[in-house]
Write a structure and sequence with these properties.
Elements lengths: L6 E5 L11 E8 L2 H13 L4 E4 L5 E3 L4 E8 L4 E3 L4 E5 L4 H9 L16 H6 L3 E2 L2 E2 L4 E8 L2 E5 L21 E9 L5 H18 L4 E5 L4 E2 L1 H6 L5 H6 L1 E2 L1 H7 L6 E2 L2 E3 L6 E4 L5 H19 L8 E3 L15
Parallel strand pairs: 2-5, 3-5, 4-19
Antiparallel strand pairs: 1-2, 6-7, 7-12, 8-9, 10-11, 10-12, 13-18, 14-15, 16-17, 17-18
């Protein structure tokens, strides 16, 4: 391992918003796109798995930890061009990127307010809210693909609803260093008014406890949407069933298992409220999936990525809720 500043056996519970997970075999901090690229290329050349992380949201690390090299990406440079062009490192906080753009009357990212992660994390799952997604503003991406640094078009990423090539079950050695975006010009007041409205909505729903943000993807099923009297008319019309509605409908809003809890404000948040380990949290995940499957014959798909060695994880048929 030719990374002299890398730490060994760094607890990932320090670096994830769920405050759970075992140690990273090797843990390296990078602060520029060049450092990030060199680490990725060096790991590939040495045959070492490289796992980039940002602020640690939208991920659940196994209690057995992560093998190979975990790279904490803190690269956050922004270069503003003309006509709404922005080139930005992927280690920047997604909300911080919105603020920097809003100060220049560049809109489109208002939905990023309150999203607890980096731009890089937002790209992994094509983050979005309020009918917008990050992918719609991207023109090019600089990546390291199998040890090669290059610029690619958005089609390379395979963006879909809360999905991209970076969520492949068999992880590909591809990471994004920088993104070239083009954002629309808007009056500053309109940008901030819209962002404040989104922030108010988030504050009313999101818990203060350690969480990974929205945990399950919404379900697109028009027939099911029509069957749910509690669903808003616009959601029925779109055939969108929020995962939180289904979790609440099966009586699991606020349910607790050991130190894990499904949100009492909004059921589509998995919280660590008392020292839960990753296994506890995944058992609660599977229990919610089973209850929803039994009641509605649909499968809740996690937005959260399960990282690390889960080979010793054993599913259980039921758990004893508190």
């Amino acid at each position: 391992m030719s990374f002299p500043t890398a730490k060994q056996n760094e607890p990932m519970s320090r670096w994830t918003t769920l405050r759970a997970g075992g140690p990273a075999e090797w843990f390296l901090v990078v602060r520029s796109a060049d450092e990030f690229a060199n680490a990725l290329i060096g790991a590939f050349d040495q045959g070492i798995d490289a796992i980039p992380v940002g602020w640690g949201s939208n991920m659940l690390v196994s209690d057995l930890g992560l093998s190979g090299l975990t790279i904490l990406n803190l690269a956050c440079q922004i270069v503003f061009g003309t006509e709404g062009e922005v080139i930005v490192d992927t280690g920047i906080g997604f909300q911080n990127l919105f603020i920097a753009c809003a100060q220049r009357n560049l809109g489109g990212l208002e939905f990023a307010v309150g999203i607890p992660g980096t731009l890089g994390g937002a790209l992994v799952s094509n983050a979005g809210a309020y009918r917008s997604n990050v992918s719609e503003f991207i023109e090019e991406l600089e990546v390291v693909d199998h040890g090669e640094r290059k610029w690619v078009k958005p089609e390379f990423m395979g963006f879909r609803y809360r999905d991209s090539i970076l969520r492949q079950e068999t992880r590909l050695p591809i990471s994004v260093l920088r993104v070239k975006m083009r954002l629309p010009t808007k009056p500053g007041k309109d940008i901030y008014d819209e962002a404040r409205d989104y922030q108010r909505q988030r504050i009313s729903k999101q818990p203060a406890s350690a969480s990974a943000g929205s945990y399950f993807k919404n379900v697109y099923d028009r027939e099911l949407a029509e069957q749910l009297p509690q669903l808003r008319g616009d959601l029925k019309a779109a055939g969108v069933v929020p995962a939180g509605v289904l979790i609440e409908a099966v009586g699991l809003k606020g349910a607790r298992f050991r130190g894990g809890m499904l949100g009492a404000r909004h059921a589509n948040f998995l919280l660590n409220v008392g020292g839960a380990n990753a296994t506890d949290l995944r058992h609660l995940t599977e229990f919610a999936q089973k209850r929803v499957r039994d009641a509605f014959d649909v499968e809740l798909e996690p937005e959260v990525l399960f990282l690390g060695d889960w080979s010793q994880f054993e599913s259980v048929e039921s758990i004893d809720l508190e």
